[in-house]
Predict the structure.
Amino acid sequence: MDFLKNTLEEIVIKKVEQGFKDNPDICQSLQCKKDVAVLILNKIKPRYIISARGMLHQAANTAEQKRISKEIDSVLPSALKQVNEHRRPNFDHSKTSGNLMDSFGKKERFTMTDGFFINFPFFLGEVRDRTTDEIISDVKVSMSANEKILDGYDGNWPNPYETSDKSGGKFAFWPKSIPTENDQAHPENFDFKLIFESKKYKTKEISFSIELEPEKFTVNFVRTDYSKDMDIVALDPK
Ligand SMILES: [Zn+2]
């Protein structure tokens, strides 16, 4: 299955939540919030991310972020008005609790499983020349956990990852979920190791440990609130 994410969803949901807060007089039901979000998502151009490269490209592109934000702001007031004036009949408008993000397409985002799985965070980092502080391309970055190389979610999330000028010397990993014998009450410790190899730079290794809680589902999208940003990795010229 290909990984595909409409990156707009998260931004739209945040703005919709804020829009309802700013307009306390309109119906605050979860149903109306969902309707507003869907209306907006159908009105603006979708932007899909299908790879690590795409994720890095978009994160780096602040002009695009601003455009998206403006586009949503321009349609939000009319969407709020339209949904409030035409509240869906036969739906529960008394339920105002609950998180819009959680109720939004949860089925496709998570696959419930019989056993427990470890879902890895999204890792993001950057390599630079220690002496010049310039970004470095053509660095092969590989990631392992507990001495095993981790497979990426799919072919779009390679391990090893090769840095490029295009992605601003950044690298990203999103390892595939793995089954575990443990359960929720027993978090597992993972010793991660990153190895940086390049023709022009000395090989460098970075190690860190993270405790991860087994979950009864696998995740089909990048949870941006579940990510590990690494400090800039400085490499020494050979
Ligand atoms: Zn409502």
